[in-house]
Amino acid sequence: MPKKIDHEERKEKILQTALKVFGREGYRDSNLSLIAQECGISRPTIYQYFKDKEEIYYYAVKLVTGRMFAKYATFAWSSEANYMDRIKSICSEIMDTATENEEELTSLVDVMLQMKKEGRDFNEIVMRRTAKLTILFKRLLRMGISSGDVIECDINKVANHILLLLESSCFQVAFLDTFEMALSKELVANYLEFFKARPKTTPVIRRS
Fold first, then answer.
1. Among 181, 191, 76, 78, which residue's Cα sits nearest to residue 137?
2. From CA 129, how far away is CA 18, in angstroms rounded?
3. Architecture per CATH, 57-194
4. CA 18, 182, 123 angle in degrees (round to 5)?
5. Which residues contact 2 (CB under 8 A, 6 or more apart)?
6. Gap between the Cα atoms of 49 and 46, Å rounded
7. Tens-digit pLDDT string for the chain (208 aa)
8. Can you tell me the distance from the alpha carbon of 182 to that of 197, in angstroms, rounded to the nearest whole number?
9. Which has the closest alpha carbon to 17: 1, 33, 28?
10. Per-domain residue ranges for the chain?
11. Can you give the pLDDT at residue 120?
């Protein structure tokens, strides 16, 4: 009896192998034959899942950002920490993930830049995938203001600032060998600390 194939598992294996090949060979010099060879499958089999390298890239962005958002959304609404600390934890986790997956991140960014030179801009798909994260930050900020965890602020502006700081960190991880993520994490934490509400103190009444 033939072994039942888990197509989602195979599709993800192709994706992970492709990212490794892109990182090692460069996107331009990679091809589906090489990816198939390293996957241990035939090239026609890859065509059952992806029509070309570009589609693999789209799927990679969708898969990575989708998983990350699901993970952070679950944490955001299950944690008992105050709302600003939840935002801090999500930002720290994103930056840790970027550091741990430096090779794959470099490959993804490299593909984006190479395709842009060829007149194909992936900015739209990236913006569409990161929009959910921005919305999550806005919701947490709004809830934080309502609960007294966060000071009154421009929610849209602050959420966009957070995303810009995270994007900057991820791009630096991808391109700068000397980049220190600890400093970037400190910068983000200090920025967010500014918007954290301070507990009100009860005035001390001195007896005469």
1. 76
2. 21
3. Orthogonal Bundle (1.10)
4. 45
5. none
6. 5
7. 456 677 888 888 888 888 778 777 777 788 889 999 998 999 999 999 998 888 887 787 777 777 777 888 888 999 899 999 999 999 999 888 888 877 777 777 777 777 677 666 666 666 776 788 899 999 999 999 999 999 999 999 999 999 999 988 888 887 777 778 889 999 999 999 999 988 765 454 555 4
8. 24
9. 33
10. 1-51, 57-194
11. 64
The CATH topology of domain 1-51 is: Arc Repressor Mutant, subunit A (1.10.10)
C-alpha dihedral, 35 to 39 to 42 to 45, nearest 10°:
-90
Q: 56 Cβ partners below 8 Å, 6+ apart?
A: 14, 15, 18, 35, 50
Measured distance CA(76)–CA(138) in Å, rounded: 12
3-state DSSP of the chain: CCCCCCHHHHHHHHHHHHHHHHHHHCCCCCCHHHHHHHHCCCHHHHCCCCCCHHHHHHHHHHHHHHHHHHHHHHHHHHCCCCHHHHHHHHHHHHHHHHHHCHHHHHHHHHHHHHHHHCCCCCHHHHHHHHHHHHHHHHHHHHHHHHHCCECCCCHHHHHHHHHHHHHHHHHHHHHCCCCCHHHHHHHHHHHHHHCECCCCCCCCCCCC
Give 181: exposed, middle or buried? Use CB within 10 Å, 0-12, 13-18, 19+. middle
Distant-in-sequence, close-in-space partners of 103: CB < 8 Å, separation ≥ 6:
19, 20, 23
